[in-house]
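I would like you to help me understand the sequence and C-alpha cells below and explain how sequence relates to structure.
___
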Amino acid sequence: MLKIDAHTHILPENWPDLSERYGYGGFIRLDHHEPGGARMMRDDHFFRVVEANTWDPDVRKTECDGYGVDVQVLSTVPVMFSYWAKPEDTLDLSKLLNDHIAGVVASDPRRFIGLATVPMQAPDLAIRELERATKDLELPGIQIGSHVEGVNLDDPGIFAVFEAAQDLGAAVLVHPWDMMAKSRMTKYWMPWLVGMPAETCLAICSMIFGGVFERLPRLRVMFAHGGGSFPGSLGRIQHGFEVRPDLCAVDNDRAPTEYLGRFWLDSVVHDPRMLEVVLDMIGPERVALGTDYPFPLGELEPGQLIESMDLEPKVLEQLLSGAALSWLDLERSRFE
C-alpha cells in the first residue's frame, strides 16, 4: 500500500544570519558543530540538537525506504514560525523557508509534498504569501501554530486567512507551539508532554466554538499529534456545551460532537487504545499517518502503531494514504 507520512519537519541546511539580516535577536540559527549534526540555537541559547535527516533530502529518502514510507509531507519546524517578529521580517523568513521546501519538492515530487509557513500575525501578508505558495510554488497548503502570540484561532484576523485557504483550496496543518503555562512546566519536559496536547485541544475548541468550521464548510484542517488532549476531553467539552450554553454557545449554537469528521487528525498518539478511540470518534477517512519525523517525541518507526493493529485492509489504506490524500486534495496517481 502507498504510505504517506503527513506530518514531518524540515529545515534548510543553511540560511542567513537572521539577527544580522533584521537587526534584532530572537531567531533560530544552526550551529553545525560536527559532521551530520547541528545545534539549533536561539541567539546564544541552546534549543535542541538535530541531525542531517533534518535538512538532507537524500538521508530522508534512505530512512523512508527503510520504513516503507513512499511520501513525506514537509513543513517547517514550528519554532521557525516567528509570529513574534516584525511582520515584514516574518514574511521574508517565510519566503526563504517556503522557497526551500518548494525546491526539495521539485527535486523529487513523487517523494515529497510541501506545506508553506506564513506570517500569521499580519493576515494581509499571510494571505499574500499563501497565494504565492499555492499558485507560484504549487504547495497544496500551509502549516500554522495553535495560536498567534496568544491569540486563539477564532480571531477575526485569523479567520480571514482560513477564508483565503478555503477559497484557494489549501489544506491547513495546525501544530502546537509556544506552549501555555511554561512558567509552571519547567521540569520533566512538561511543555512537550502536557502543554502540547493542551494547545491542540484549545485550538480545536476555538475553531469549533468560534464557528470557523460552520462558516467555512470546505476548509480542510488537520490537527497534529492526534488532536492532543481533545479526544480524551470531548465528553467534558460536549457536556459543558449542554449544561452551560450561555458560556459555550455564544458564537456557535451547534454542538461540538456535530463537527466530528469535519477535520482530520494525524496518528501520533503512541498507544493503540488511543488510536482506537480516535478512529471510532472521527473515522479512518479522517486519520492520517503522521510521525513528527525526525524528532524523538514522534513515532520512531513510521506506521508501526497502525500496522501493529488488526485493521481491515480498507481501514489500513485510509490511514496510510487515503486520509492524507483527501486532506491535501491530491490524486493517488501522482505518486504511483
